[in-house]
# Entry
Amino acid sequence: MGRDMRRRRLLNWLGGLGLAAVLLGLGVGGFVWWKFFERGPEPVWADDRARFQHGSIGSELLAGIPYPIFWVLPRVFPDLIEKHATAGYGPDKAGYGGYGAFGLAWEPGGVLPVGLALERRGFDRVTMNCALCHTTRYRLAADETARFAVGGPSHTLDLQALLRFLFEASHDRRFTAARMMPEIALQFRLDWIDWALYAAALIPKTRTALRFAEREMGWMEAKPAWGPGRDDAFNLPKFLLTRADWDDSVGNTDFPALWRLGERAGGLFHAAGEADSLEAVVATSAFGIASPPGRDFRARNRWLAAYTASLEPPAFPLPIDAALAGAGAGLFGEHCATCHAVGGARTGTAIPIDEVGTDGERLLSWTDHDARRMNRITGVLRVGAEMNGAQGGYVAKPLAGLWLLGPYLHNGSVPTVRDLLAPPAERSVVFFRGHDVIDGDDIGFVSSGPEAERFGFRFDTREKGNGNGGHTYGTHLTEPEKDALIAYLKTL
Amino acid sequence: MSRLRTAGRRVWTVWSWAAGALLLGAIALGGLFAWDYYGRDEPQAFFGRDVPDDPVMQFKYGSTGGDRLVGMPVGLFKALPLLCRDYLPGEGWESLGFIYEAGMDRPIGTSLRRSLGFDRIGLNCATCHVGTWRARPEDAPNVVVGMPSNRVDLGRFARFLTQCALDERFNPWQVVQAAETATGERYGLLDRLMLQYLAVPAMKEFIVLARHRFRFLDHEPEPGPGRFDTFGPAKALLNWPLDRLPPRERIGIVDFPSLWLQGPREGMQLHWDGNNISVDERNRSAAFGSGAVPTTIDREAIAFTAAWLRSDANAPPPWPFEIDRDRAARGQALYARHCAACHGASGRDFSGPLVGKVEPIARIRTDPCRLDNYTEALSAEQNNLYAGFPAERFRHFRKTDGYANQPLDGIWLRAPYLHNGSVPTVRDLLEPAELRPAVFYRGNDVIDTARLGFVADAPATDGRAFFRFETRCTGDAAACAAAANPENRHDDNVCVPGPWAGNSNRGHDGAAYGTDLPAADKDAIVEFLKTF
# Structure
């Protein structure tokens, strides 16, 4: 006996140990899968609009914030909401009302503001989608309730203020389980496992993730404010994805509309022509906001491209003088159609910066070198789309839904169409963005006067990247001609 | 030697095993006891398996579940009026308008629940929705369930709790002594320690928080009996920076509404400004006021009460005095012509093209403050007050642009009138705004049979003092001139702040509202409304 017995015993013992380890591993793995990864039920959408507004782009694992934590932040940090939602605005800008204070489009009865998705991966997670920056909140008069235009630019959304709020909260002493859990417990029923998970893992993890994101976004603090309705469109992927060294370029760009994008097939996309096709725009934009490439990615992007290809802007809601608009149509054909009519000779091309003369900063923020680095990453990850460097000028686009696209030019530096038809020297030097009442006469949003000053964000065209020069087309027209042209532009 | 030592060790071992087992047993037993004693969660219920269903008792004394969050131990509840007698206008909770009935040792509108080892008292729907009336001052009051409370003064109640809990007397020893005096009990060691060192500090902590969150009361005129700010508490729950709200949004005091006949009201625009069309959401939103948040609300109890509120049994009592039939018949025709479209055909027939619909502020022109108090931003956030319970999430809150037309069932018990309770009687409401009383007294429950409402011109009766309600500045001219907005005008239908804001008795006047009818016609309409 002796050695054989001992060896067999040892083997048995090791085998038992191994089996226990495997079982334990399976148990732990199953628990982790259940609590952190298991998918919730497939959402059912009432219609395409609902899917666009609240459908997830699949970024739960990379960028999802646990819903109870997201939900409770405004209740725990009302002072920080107020601080960031009002910084740079007039005295009457609301610094309360939860996330709505940052200008998100929150439809009556909506679970979350438009542009936020709620999906379960182990636990409910909130993520952003395209609609966050592409839903216009507007009103015809100050005393009416808000209307919403799907796919329009979110000119009231102050994304930077929202980020700053989240970042500052992550450094606050109140961002702890001790302060947040009781508040969560008023509205969410958590069993002891979830309670422990939130207290010991999810709250600290979210705090850490926000601090990480803050370090990643540190470059934005050295640049002029985005303000409502804008972000630094290509510095975001440049610094975050291609890991380029931080530089002093300013690429602040107005959120564009996603209307009738099908009309633009064959032309360039993005303000400076960084993409050649709608599919490329969708793929890189989705990838840019943490949508992970894969089978779902491609299917979802196909749907998004198809949806935005034929998405219609709302019609101008006020009466239009038909005779005047008729006269304006002729003027449009004469002065604008080459670049802005669908099928115009230069529509969809980049008009060289020397010719258009608008602010050139944006072109410096994304070079061929940056595009190559980006394409290397997207190639490895099979995003399935290539990008261009800035094309040396700004893309002339068709003007679908122009009346909701204010402020105008790629950097949102000119408040109304009437202002844009004035020589640059006569355009507003300072105006107020983000007030959601439309200016039905000059087209755009009410951006000057006491009301705009009370509620709006003070926008200074003298800041870097905010220049309002150039695009002098039509500035020589007479006032009656401008009236006629504007009347026509309302019909687009 | 060594054998002896071994034996000794053996004895020790036995003893230590035995002691260990005993200790473990004691801990287990103690744990079981604690689990049972402190984990027990039992409301006093008036429905269910063990007791016969009594919806009226359940409404008056049942729990909404809010007492799990904000209920205070019975001892404390009874101790406070003794301990802080000087902060009360009179003796006991009655002096704040709470109603006691024979056979119950706590007032109507309070619930009782065994929870966390205490018998805890909380508020419920009946606090604000049970009222009283009497024919003569010397009569005993008649209690009416579902009637808007005309006597309870919640503003003063909140102030009293704050003053008392933050008073030096509110310390563990004096509170327990007062509790023992009030209840006539002697607390055991454990109960006494729990009360002293758990309940007293917890309540103080809670009051500090509540005082901060309820600071909206400091921005508003004194509500007085029968009124409170409805949506201020919602903003407080959301922890809005209340002192930064625009001045026009800060005043939201309204009269308590009646709760009769909720079934026929389904689908109408509910709340004074008609901001919700779901009776269920309205119920649960109101239940927040009792502390019934999604994780504490007693769903069975709320459903039981809601079903009763919807039933035909929940109807106002008929007018108990004589009615001049001829005059009422004449009033019926006038009512049909001038009032029925908005207020329904009768006290039970709520049909009418505009019943339950919002009348734009530009037309109704009543005090706009409550309308401005409810905002689009609040509606969006409110829809998320049941965020953790997707099936129960609110979906129907909307910002409106006026006040909702209501059915007039039991109108004789719903005085003073208009959403802010600014007009004492129906007969006054039929006068043009400038002829309505600028000052009157609230809280008297003696019926004014001629003018339809409560007697409102007496500052006090039989030792009961009433609340002086001012619709605008009525003091000396110099003081008025110094005050903000002394005439309490809101010309553009926008709330203008000031010490009387929200109390204006304007609006609901002009030809469309019958205020220019001959006096005899107005009297006839009043007579007909007595049948409602």
